[in-house]
Amino acid sequence: MEVNLPRHKQANPLNYTKVQLAQKKTAIKAMIKDYPNVDATWIEWLYDWSQYTKNEEIERIIESGEWESEGMFSKPLGGVITGAIEVADEDGNFIKV
After folding, report:
1. Adjacent-strand bridge partners of 94
2. Residue 95 in 3-state DSSP?
3. What stretch of H or E contains 47?
4. Would you kindly state where each structural domain of the chain is located, as residue ranges?
5. Which residues are within 8 A (CB) of 45 and not within 5 positions of it... i.e. 6 or more apart?
6. Which region, left, alpha or beta, applies to residue 29 given φ > 0 means left and ψ of -120 to 50 means alpha?
7. Which of 16, 30, 47, 74 is 20–30 Å from 84 (CA)?
């Protein structure tokens, strides 16, 4: 019994042409190499966003620094933790370090 299963077709909700998909793949591969700590999905989202956003809007965001500020859920970086460690001395009393 022979069963013909259809091959998977890559989703293309933004209706890129074959040439545009090849350019997108090349650009994303280069961005992943340049920014290895950024999730590949985020890079793909940014690429799609940049392709469908007017250059004036992108320049306005860059000039204003709109995306450079701390986000609502950003965690503060750095700092010093004090009083978190307790060490027992010879008498069994605990001293905060």
Report:
1. 88
2. strand
3. helix 40-51
4. 14-69
5. none
6. alpha
7. 74
